[in-house]
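During data preparation, a discrete fold description was generated, as reproduced here:
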Amino acid sequence: MSELNVRLCSQYGLEVLDVFTLGHVCEGSVLKVSTRQGQKAVLKSGADARSIQEIRMNIEGYENMRSIGLAEFIPETYASAVSDTEAYILMEYCGEDVLTATQKSEDPGSIYLRLKKELVRVYKESLCRLPETHGGYLLRELFRRIHSTYNLHIVPVLGPSDEMASLLESLATILTSAEGHTFCFSNWDFTPDDVYLTDAGLKYSDPHSEVLGIPMVDLGCFAGVARDAYRLPGSEDGYRILMELAMDTAPLLGLTKAEGKRYFYLGRVLQSFLSARFRLQNQPEKGIALFNQGKEYLSKIIC
């Protein structure tokens, strides 16, 4: 255990119960703990630049979610601090995440149905109108993430492709012309290992600072991670449920169902490229398959 965690456990009277290993940034620095009162909690900490930045984004995300009326959607924070040299959050333990719950459930499809019901409520409660420039910024940032993931992490392994260059150029044109004023909760890192279905409702533990956007992108990311990256039980039905939710949510934002499906596919492109990035080195066949999958969804958007 790190010196930081030893100090924090002493400061708050915590007993370590388990170490969570999922995640690419704060891996090994997310602990399940017990407080002096015997209450289970989670301690997320770090003293390196990437961990500090992630925790800073989480804290900002929690505050921004409170500001749009989603305080019940996030774990309760017991203590937190961020400095130039370290950061931590001590927060509510929400039980098993959706990833774990579907693996243990005798009826994993019911988990996706409940997730859909909870997300409908979250989307309606956070619905708001913002300047059109907000949507333009989000789409430019989404394209930047897709483009940079491909250029920085996939091209060095698979080599450049004229076909991909043309597809990405067409995608940039489509996203530049897209318009929108109405948004609701959205966070592109919305994945099964950060989402919890508790007795009190849905909880989300790992937000970035930007929490308003186009949720159909999130649903595409979530569905792709569940079905294609983790191959979770019930994920075939879950994929269908979440794609239907994406199309049903589109009119809430003043979009057509066809546009909702296109944004769902956009989330699939982002998730496929990110999943390919993390597998090309140690699981090359799976990495290539995920990349080709992302390219297929990109083609569907362009057509």
User: Anything to note?
Assistant: The two ends are 52 Å apart (CA to CA). The CA atoms of residues 107 and 297 lie 29 Å apart. Residues 24-28 have pLDDT under 50 and may be disordered.
